[in-house]
Amino acid sequence: MKTLKKIEADKVYEITIGKNVTTVKVLSVERRVNGQLVYDCLNVKTDKRVTVSDAKRFLREIKTENPAEVAKVAEAKPERPKGKKVSGLDAAYRVLSESDRPMKAKEIIETAMRNGYCDLKGATPDLTISAAIQRDIKTRNENSRFVKAGKGLFAAR
Q1: How many CB atoms are closer than 10 A to CB 96?
Q2: Which of 57, 126, 122 is nearest to 91 (CA)?
Q3: pTM (2 decimals)?
Q4: What is the phi-psi region of residue 66: left when phi exceeds 0, alpha when psi lies from -120 to 50, beta otherwise?
Q5: Are 119 and 85 in contact (CB under 8 A)?
Q6: What's the mean per-residue pLDDT of the chain?
Q7: pLDDT given at position 17
Q8: Cα(42)–Cα(144) distance, rounded to whole angstroms?
């Protein structure tokens, strides 16, 4: 991730707050006694003040000439990709219901990701889905969408 070289007062930036991205206007830049820079900002969307002490949170400067445009940029949501992705458990059910035979968790996940039903980024998505399916079977009993068809094999009910 690229950090901005200089963050200035009276300019508008896109920053991260947790996993979210929001737009702020920098009101002032102060240097603390220990030499650290602190940015006093105003959240454009909520009109609340935010103090940012980590310059790495600033993603990019938003260059607009009129303040009304800043509000429009702040409200604009990024477009969601076509073909909504579903949860791993929903994707597993879809794969199993389309299949005519029981499958192992690894095969279920490979099929789901190949068909674009879900996008799991963990190191062991097959173990995650296997655990989720087993938990679903155990907690929901007869109401579960899944059934255990053998050792490590699952099928749709």
Answers
A1: 23
A2: 126
A3: 0.47
A4: beta
A5: yes
A6: 84
A7: 85
A8: 48
